[in-house]
Amino acid sequence: MIIWDNDTVYAGGSFNVPKVNDEFNQFEQSPPSQQEKPADTPSVKEEKGFWDSISEPFTEAWDWTKDKLSDAKEWTKEKISAFWEWLTAILSKITEVVINAFVATWDWIVKFKEYIAFAGVLIIGIALCFFAPPLRVSILTE
């Protein structure tokens, strides 16, 4: 029967198996030895051949063009990003103002709904007095 515990293993219950680290801790550990580096050899410059001298201006022009295009791409990304942030901020403020205006208008309508209804009936009654002569007499007499 084998029972596993955190650090100790019991095999059959008759003896303890020592930790492996106990044996390794008996010796001092020294830093790894430094290998000697070979003496620096002078670098050998390669001479440019005929094709290298012809293709070098084209290579330099291509590298310059790639650098300029990369810079232009980064500049464009920065400007578009800044414009997008500005646009979203402006639209956010406009939306906030419009929604606040609608909410304020609705709150005002709910607060004064009786007065608004009274004004609407009064305006319709006055309009009927001027534009519907048979109703004028009945409205004025009541």
Automatic annotation (TrEMBL):
Transmembrane spans: 83-103, 115-135
Keyword entries, A-Z: Membrane, Transmembrane, Transmembrane helix
Origin: domain of life: Bacteria
Protein's recorded name: Uncharacterized protein
Highest classification ranks of the organism: Bacteria, Bacillati, Bacillota, Bacilli, Bacillales
